[in-house]
Amino acid sequence: MNKIWVGVVVFCLFYGILSKNTKAMMEAIFLVPEKSLNLLIKIGGLIVFYNGLFQIAIEAGVIDNLARIFKKPINKLFPKLDKNSEAIRYICANITANLLGLGVGAIPMGIKSLEAMKKENNDQEQVTSSMLLLMVLNITSFTLFPVTILTIREIYKAKITIGLIPYIIFSTLILTVIGVFMAKLVRFKNEE
After folding, report:
1. Global pTM?
2. How confident is the model at residue 1 (pLDDT cuts 50, 70, 90)?
3. 23 or 164: which carries more pLDDT confidence?
4. Residue 156 domain-assigned?
5. Which of 55-69, 141-155, 175-189 has the highest mean pLDDT?
6. Of 129, 135, 161, 167, the residue nearest 148 (C-alpha)
7. Which of 94, 63, 62, 65 is nearest to 78 (CA)?
8. Percent of the chain, pLDDT > 90?
């Protein structure tokens, strides 16, 4: 991977020299760290804020109440897990975070649910079909209100923010349905 970046930098340097645009290129090189730090502070602050907000919601019991709504569909998606297990609770929290579009806020719940599934599987190192399905659900992350995307677009003064919501809902729904279908297909193939 580093060779690719070195190749890109060398290409850009040669291109800047050949196009006799070295002054603009040098200015851009010195602006990159400032722009990167600015982006890191804005996005990092956003991630910390949403993770804190999500943790407050967990401790206040809001996530447990929302998880009750998803418990029946989750039990049908994960039939091999115990219906009242800790893994199911964390999976519900993970899906709730994804529905709210918290992105990075869903990852700790996903990790905790994987750990709980591993305990249920007697700490075996083998990946189960339930773990695979959870990863698919977390990656495709069906979103009803994309808070993180809208906030980032608002920070950078994008022309279209709220107008993207229907497209995001539709695309994440399609991705999730296809992902669940593929995960179920893999489970079916492995059980044969």
Report:
1. 0.70
2. low
3. 164
4. yes
5. 175-189
6. 161
7. 94
8. 7
Residue 4: per-residue pLDDT: 77
Residue 9 falls inside a structural domain: no
CB atoms within 10 A of CB 158: 13
Nearest C-alpha neighbor of 86 from the set 51, 57, 117: 117
Helices (H), ranges, the chain:
2-18, 22-60, 62-77, 86-99, 107-120, 129-140, 147-155, 165-191
Sorting pLDDT into bands at 50, 70 and 90, what band is 176? very high
Long-range interactions of 145-149: CB distance < 8 A, separation 24+? 145/99, 145/100, 145/101, 146/101, 147/50, 147/100, 147/101, 147/102, 148/46, 148/50, 148/101, 148/102, 148/103, 148/104, 149/101
Residues 3 and 5: their CA atoms lie apart, in Å, by 5
What's the CA gap between 56 and 2, in Å, rounded? Answer: 40
The pLDDT of 79-102, averaged and rounded, is: 82
Q: Specify whether the CB–CB gap between 112 and 89 falls below 8 A.
A: no
The more confident residue out of 89 and 22 is: 89
Q: Is residue 144 part of a domain?
A: yes
- How many distinct structural domains can be found in the chain? 1
pLDDT, average across residues 150-164: 81
- Domain of 171? 45-191
Asked whether residue 69 is assigned to any structural domain, the reply reads yes
